[in-house]
Amino acid sequence: MVCSNCKAVIQDGARFCSNCGAPVTAGVQMTPPGGQPYTMQGQPLQGQGYNPMPQAAVVQEQTFVVRKMPIILIIVLTFGFIISSLFMENGSMDVAMAVSCLPGIILLFLIYKMDRIEPEPKGLMIKLFLAGGFIATTAAVIIETIVESVLGILIYDNGILYCFAQAFIVAAATEELCKYTLLKLFTWKHPAFNFRFDGVVYSTAVAIGFEVVENVLYLIDSTANTAFTRAAFPGHCIFGIYMGYYYGQAKARQLAGDNKGAKALRRKGVLTAILIHGTYDFICFFSEIFESELIQILLFFALTIVMVILNVTAYKNIKKYAFEDKPV
């Protein structure tokens, strides 16, 4: 057989390409560099009855089902959770707790299953989840309390600047650095870290652990509608996807002897997560300083659109990262 992605020869019965990691899809015809169509058994198609048009129609139909339907579902769920939050202020807190925690647990399971070439050790995944949920959140709360006190003294009277500092320094930088520190501590030298997509799996495990515990802490002093708002946007998971992508690429650079390049990629991953995290939080904080109901509604609508865009983009990217997975 010949890989449809990198054109390398694949052994019969293999589920993934040993060269690029691309999945071998049963029943799909592959074309080698010479251009002659092959069957899944590696034999050229013979006879005059071969017609590529029916296959093209099947592929087109599969494209809609496989690619479009999950995106539509993500959009519907995002708007559904947001709309539900408008009517659930006095809802059951038990339901709210479940709503806030379940999306993260489901996402962790789905991302783990996407790592199809070589699944990660379950013990390591549990350790990362618990570290993100308890160690990272505890450290973040302590640091945020200190930094917020200092900012409150220095720039509290400047509304926009205070919102910016709250979003990018207090929340985004503190939380992403806490998660990254644990991510690197537990995984950088771990022998299981041998594929690039592993970086995404590890990063999101820490991030989702952090998110689940943070959601519970938010709900202690909040109402049930907060759970639906937070469920609409699994932010920490999304931030973790981008951090993990560059983290996995950095591991490959480091093993290739490029330590400087590896550090630059790890730094890029953290900064990307901080930028997305901080921008989202800034819109949230910024909407709270206006007394005008109209402006608050417009900013709420803008925030919803941002949620949808980030959710859909993260889904597309993580599918791409999983498909393009390679050994480090």
Rough outline: globular
Strand runs, count: 0
- Structural domain tally: 2
Based on CA atoms alone, the radius of gyration comes out at: 23 Å
Mean pLDDT: 86
Q: Mind summarizing the main beta sheet?
A: none
Q: Helix share of residues?
A: over 70%
Kindly estimate the percentage of residues that lie in beta strands according to DSSP.
Answer: under 5%
Structural class assignment: mainly alpha
Description:
Helix 1 packs antiparallel against helix 9, helix 4 packs across helix 5 and helix 7 runs antiparallel to helix 8. The protein has 9 helices and no strands. About 7% of the residues have low confidence. The protein has 328 residues and is mainly alpha-helical. The longest helix has 34 residues. The relative contact order is 0.13. It has 2 domains: 50 residues, no CATH class; 262 residues, no CATH class.
Task: Describe the protein's topology.
Layout: H1 52-85, H2 93-114, H3 122-155, H4 159-187, H5 197-220, H6 224-232, H7 235-255, H8 259-287, H9 293-323
Helix pairs in contact: 1-6, 1-9, 2-5, 2-6, 3-4, 3-5, 4-5, 4-8, 5-7, 7-8, 7-9, 8-9
Give the key terms.
mainly alpha; 9 helices; 0% strand; 328 residues; single chain; 2 domains
Describe what is shown at a glance:
The chain has 328 residues and is mostly helical.
